[in-house]
Design a protein that fits this description.
The chain is of the alpha/beta class. It has helices at residues 40-48, 70-75, 93-99, 113-118, 120-123, 135-148, 165-180, 193-199, 222-228; strands at residues 2-11, 14-24, 29-33, 55-60, 63-64, 78-81, 153-157, 185-189, 202-207, 210-216. The chain contains nine helices and ten strands. Strand 4 and strand 5 form a beta hairpin. The structure holds adenosine-5'-triphosphate and magnesium ion.
Length: 231
Amino acid sequence: MLSIQNLSFSYGAVQALRNINMTMAESRVTCVMGRNGVGKTTLMKNIMGLLRPTAGSILTADGDITPLSAHRRARAGLALVPEGRQIFPNLTVEENLQVSLAARRDGSKTIPGHVYELFPGLKTMLKRMGGDLSGGQQQQLAIARSLVAQPKVLLLDEPTEGIQPNIIKQIGQVLHTLTRDLKITVVLVEQYLDFVKEFGHQFYIMNRGQVVAEGATSDLTSDIVRRHLSV
Ligand SMILES: Nc1ncnc2c1ncn2[C@@H]1O[C@H](COP(=O)(O)OP(=O)(O)OP(=O)(O)O)[C@@H](O)[C@H]1O
Ligand SMILES: [Mg+2]
């Protein structure tokens, strides 16, 4: 469970988040949608602790995490797969995965087997350089890397952007397994409506730093889409 209460954030004089309230249920995919520049990435960075809110709080099942640094939030079970899949191009696939072992709460030094089960393709490329993978493979690596830390809350910022359809489908199936079998709370920033409808449970739509619509993804009507998402 993740709860965001009355959260506001400003870049200097520019207010990017205004009194955001959201609840992300455990074992569910909650989608954060909205046009370009409405504050989705800013929200993810505030949740992860990479930006500090000017007001409000962020709570998990373990309590109020607002005072914690990004590092402590990672230790507390949060993980962020940032926009633009920032893997390390000059490290091998295996080394990219090993980087996340530092965030493990149990001090384990081995990649959990389920990471390779979720992404069998990666297991065949462990010695390849991250930068030599396709965009879709890099996105899978970025997600796999975040899972090495065994997060309880996974934040994904536009994972399908610029990715070929067959890999989008695979990523969707991974989300399904993460929520159903591993009971992970997933927050998915996503502009691809079909993906939201197929793999998401709840949605929030943002506009100019505010929540303007919310509900179950099964209730995402064409009227809501036209009003808040169409360009
Ligand atoms: N470092 C920054 N300094 C100042 N303003 C910023 C900074 N980063 C983002 N902004 C502004 O904050 C607002 C929200 O940006 P943000 O990147 O969170 O939007 P977004 O919804 O993720 O957009 P996109 O769909 O393009 O990824 C925008 O108006 C943007 O110009
Ligand atoms: Mg963004």
